[in-house]
Every structure is written in C-alpha cells, then in structure tokens.
Amino acid sequence: MAKTYDLTQGKTTPIILKFFFPMLLTNMLQQIYTIADTMIVGKGLGDNPLAAVGNMSSLTFFIIGFSLGLTNGFSVSIAQAYGAKNGDALKKAVASSVILSTIITVLLTAISVIFLHPVMIMLQTSEVIMADSLLYGYIIFGGLFSTIAYNLCASILRALGDSKTPFIAIIFSTIFNIVFNWVSIYILHMGVEGPAAVTILSQIISAAICFAKLRKIEDIRLTKEHFRDNVKVYLELLKNGIPMAIMNSITAIGSMTVQYFVNGMGVAYTSAFSACSRYINLFIQPSCTAGITMSSFTSQNFGAKKYDRIFEGLKVCMTIALITYIVFGSVMVFFPRFLASMMLNGEQQIELAMGYLVRSGIMKFGVDFLFVVRSGCQGMGKPLFPMISGIMEMVMRVAVIVMYADKVGFAATSYAEIAAWIAALLINSVAFGVFLHGYMKKSDMSHILDTASVHNCFKKPHKLNHA
Questions:
Q1: 381 close to 93: Cβ distance less than 8 angstroms
Q2: What is the spatial distance between Cα 241 and Cα 204, in angstroms, rounded to a whole number?
Q3: Which DSSP category does 186 fall into?
Q4: Which of these ranges, 233-247, 337-351, 450-464, has the smallest mean pLDDT?
Q5: Looking only at Cα atoms, what is the longest distance across the chain?
Q6: How far apart are alpha carbons 248 and 397 in whole angstroms?
Q7: Residue 428: which of 241, 305, 294, 283 has the closest Cα?
Q8: Percent residues over pLDDT 90 in the chain
Q9: Nearest CA to 206 among 235, 174, 181, 250?
Q10: Phi then psi dihedrals of residue 10, to 5 deg
Q11: Mean pLDDT, residues 162-166 taken together
Q12: Residue 274: exposure state from Cβ atoms within 10 A (0-12, 13-18, ≥19)
C-alpha cells in the first residue's frame, strides 16, 4: 500500500525542501525537454518552423493553462481535506475532481480544435508559418486529454504530499520525448507534426505512471458511493478551480496580445520571442516550484488550522525564490548572447533576443516572488485576489504593448512582461498578508478564549448572598 505525506507535522524547512526538490527536478525536466524540442526544431527544421511552434505557445497556455488552473484549484480542496484528516471528504473531492476533469477535457478539446484557425488569423499569423502552426496546434489540442490527465494525477499526488512520483514520471517521459523528437526529425524526416505527436505520447506515459501510484493509495480508494450526491463538493471544487483557471486564461490573453504585436513585426521577431519565452519558462521553474510547494504546504496546514506554520513556510519559499532570482537573473543579464545563439541562427534574431533577456533578467524578481505569495492565497482557499491579479497582468501587458510597440519596437514585449509581474506581485502580497494576519489573530484569540474557559472551570463558584 502506498503512503501519503503529512505536511502538517515536523520541522518546516526540512519537510518543505523534501517536497520541493523532487518537484523542482520534475519541472526542470519538463522545461528541459521543451528547450530540447525548441533546439531540435530550430536547428533541424529552421527558424520558420521554430516560429510556427513558438507562435502556438500563448494559445496553448490559454487552453492548457485553463485546465491546469482547474486541477490546481481542485487540489486545494483535496489537500485541505487531507490536512483536516477528513477521509470521506477527501475521497469525495478526488472522485468529483475526476468527473469535472473529464467534462472539461471534452469541452476544451472541441473548442480549441474548432476555433484554432480563426484565432491564428486573428493573431496575424504569417502565411509563411500558418500551415505548420495549424498542424502543430491540431495535434496538441487533439491530445489534450493526455495533458489534463497528467496534471490531475500529479496535482492529487502533490496535495497528498507526494512530489516524488511525478518526478519519476517525468524522467521517463523526458527521455522518451528527447529521443523520439530527434528520431522524428533527423531519421524519419518529419516536420512539426513529429514533435507534437511525441509530446502527446510523453504526457500519456507521465499520466500512466502517476495513475498507477494513485491506485495504490488506500486513503483515496474510491467506491461508487463517493461519486454520488456530490453537488456541494462540485461547487466547492469549482469555487477554487474556476478563479485559478480564469486567472491563467486571462494572463494568456495578455500574452496573446503581445504575440499579436510580435507577429505583426515579422517572422524574425516571432522566432526571437519564441526563444526568449522558452528561457523565461525554464528560469522561473525553481520559483514556480516554490509556489506549488507553498500551495500544498499552505492547503494542508490551513485544513489543520496551523496558521503559524504557513508563515514559516512563506519564509522558506521566499528564500528559494530569492536564490532563483539571483542565480538565473544573473545568467540572463551576463550571458544573453550565449543563450540566444543556442536556439537561433540569424544575427537579427539573436540581437533581439539578447535585449529581451537582459531587461527581463534584471526585473525577474517580480515573477519569482509572485509565484510564492499568489500560491499562498490559493492554498488558503482565497482564489479571488489571484484572479484579480491575473486581470491586472492582462491589463498591464496590453496597455504597455499598445502604448510602446510603435515607440520602442520589440523592447516593448519585455516591458509588458515586467509591468505585469510587478502589478500582480503587489496585489497578491497585500492579499496574502491581510488574510494570513487575520487567521493568525483569530487563532490567537481562540486560544486565549479556550484557556480562559478552562481556567473558569476550575474556579470555585461564588456563594449567593441571601437577603
């Protein structure tokens, strides 16, 4: 029988780091095989196919980010039930998450496939890369079930404190992905359809490994009863999941707007932007992982009403985010040409990417700290402010790119990202501080009242004075 992992017990730093590092390796491996995909496509097929694949990134994030937000939201309820040691609520939350995820998979697959071509036209996709963008997109969205299955299984495992199994799953899928991407392009001489198909198969492998582990966990052994009369559970899951999903999708709309302006500048700019986006996604992974850790740690301890531990967890995760900023921000600032030339061939593309990397590297602390405080709000079951911050991210991206694209050109793309990071960071920092302070104060008052009640029980009763 497989174990679950209680994050409400033990010293905070060791238990967080034990959870953090397997998940960090998981996320880094995911990004490494994404980088490997980009390098294989860029070097094996050229800058135009690379632009076609990169052109899909914002739309892919819009669809997959929505589903990821939902499954992450579901995991908050699962982790809170686990932290509260409520076995029946835990099983019902898992069962309901499966039902909702299945419905969402069908809807998102249909919507994304039907509207892909019109959206590509709306984004000013060049005719030079249109065919490859559509081919890549139809395969990725047609196999959306594999991505959602993995995200759901991995989020349930993490809610139960298990970050090792998703790591093991990603090791196998990463090896498969890199090897068969190379095979598809250099041996089978396929186009962008090769990496797209390999990506789907890799996700299926990851999902299968995580599902095999879930079946062994006694705490979530489900029966037919756990799938019945779950209307209240559905509403609770959606209360956490929908705001997180909307947050991701709204953020993606801002990114799609930036992509629209980049595409209008020309294919060279699309290629440079694609490469930079890949590096940003890679270099934020430690802080992103710290955020996911913060969410799971906060959710379990919130369910257990151990609010002091949430504050201790914040300090550890913010330290991780600070180290991430110092290390990877420095790499972006001091080695931009090396990074750009690893993916791009043309000198113009390399120069454009260098400027983007330097500017973003200096201000990268905004997104690093954002992941932690935003996840803390979500872990306490307060997804409204993260959703509002997602709206603000979109507003800032759109406002900056619209106002400055004609004035400073490609540099406006990095300014748009930086403005979005800082605005969202401020909103989530205030919200997290207010919520946590309120719960800690309420807990202290409750303790005082409980102590007073016990003390009064042992007081001798006053004698009544009879007239």
A1: no
A2: 23
A3: I
A4: 450-464
A5: 106
A6: 14
A7: 294
A8: 42
A9: 174
A10: 90, 175
A11: 88
A12: buried
Tokens in use for 66? 């929505």
Q: Is the pLDDT of residue 247 over 50?
A: yes
Span 203-217, average pLDDT? 94
pLDDT tens, 55-111? 777 788 788 888 888 998 898 889 889 888 888 899 999 999 999 999 999 999 999
Residue type for position 377: C
Which tokens sit at 337?
């040409």
Q: What are phi and psi of 217, to 5 degrees?
A: -90, 115
Round to whole Å and give the CA distance between 105 and 81.
Answer: 25
What residue ranges do the domains of the chain occupy? 12-445
- 333, two tokens: 């600032």
Is residue 289 within 8 A of residue 31, CB to CB? The reply is: no
Give whole-number Cα distances, 117 to 113, 217, 261, in Å: 8, 43, 18
Contact 42, 343 (CB under 8 A): yes
**What is the arithmetic mean of pLDDT over 15-21?**
90
**pLDDT exceeds cutoff 70 at 452:** no
> Amino acid identity of 54?
G
pLDDT at 432: 93
Residues near 231 by Cβ (< 8 Å), separated by ≥ 6?
none
| Residue entry with tokens 């962008």 | 192
